[in-house]
Fold this sequence. Notes:
The complex is a heterodimer.
Chain A: E1 3-4, E2 8-11, H1 18-30, E3 48-50, H2 53-69, H3 71-74
Antiparallel strand pairs in A: 1-2
Helix pairs in contact in A: 1-2
Chain B: H1 2-10, E1 12-21, E2 40-44, E3 47-55, H2 56-59, H3 63-67, H4 70-88, E4 93-95, E5 100-102, H5 105-114, H6 116-125, E6 129-138, H7 152-163, H8 173-185, E7 188-191, E8 202-211, H9 215-229, E9 233-241
Antiparallel strand pairs in B: 1-3, 1-4, 1-5, 2-3, 6-8, 6-9, 7-8
Amino acid sequence: MPESSDNLVIAGNDFTDEASVLDVLDHVLNAGVVIRGSLVISLAGVDLVYVGLDVILTSIETAMRYLHIQPVRARISLPKSEKPSD
Amino acid sequence: MARRVDSDLRDSVIYLYGVTQSPAGAAPSVAGVDGQSRIQTIDCAGMVCWVSHVPAAEYGEKFSQNLEDMDWLAAVSLRHQRAVGAIAESHDMLPARLGTVFLTEDSLQADIRRRKASLKRDLQRIAGMQEWGVKIFASPQQTVLPTKMKTGREYLEAKSQMLRVRKPAVPDEEVKKLASELAKLGAATAEGGKISGGARDLQYQVSVLVKKADRKKLEQLLRRFSREWKDRRKIECSGPWAPYSFVSHEGSSKSE
């Protein structure tokens, strides 16, 4: 329901501007089910990979710096034509 | 064909988007997190895991390294969200955090089985709900730059005065009023994210879990406040999101 009046913006999720990239990062990095919270890469027969929370946190800080300092490069969009290959 | 599948499986890892109740409907046709793979389902412990088989080289051991590449992170985050959003359009879904990757289906099965009780509880809690993000910004005041500035320094000082972030430490009464009405409308609220929280003039942000049927009520509420606030504040609402901010994090400690 993308709509806006003078001081109300209700955004659909098209994720193409800097602000919505930040929103997406907030959701996909900060929240969501953590199936396992530590970095284990095929260690001692445990073949689960999960990126450690501290790595994620570092990335958030880097992302904040990066996106606030260089907002233009963060303005990316994905081509609509991206389709799964069979 | 069979040969290709074999080599695909050997060189790929399983990337998890999230978990839904059984049965799975058709998988959405958007591309997976790598931009190429399909979204597939795996039945796990009476639930459904939504996954893609993605290249092990990029999403396995190198994943944490790749996260430091901000262009890569931004693209992968958007694709993750696009896949999650497409699945959540037709399912009540617990979205996984970015970068939940398993080397084999067995390890995915084992982990989901271990968490079955809490996942099922969460799935019940979020059934029929969507997450919305609400932000309130102070409208920039029209500060007029003094016309008679002699030096560049004077200009910069005036400009910096203009750009100063106006963010009261405690939300004022009007903002609190909207916050409490949002809390009443929603089934739950959660603190807004830290990354977008640095935005200028942001006074308040919150994530609200709202019944799909109450979407119109949310719009009406926001519209009422935006009319009241007119030139003083701006409201931004994003969504619907899968309920990222409303899944339990029990058992997710680092020491595990």
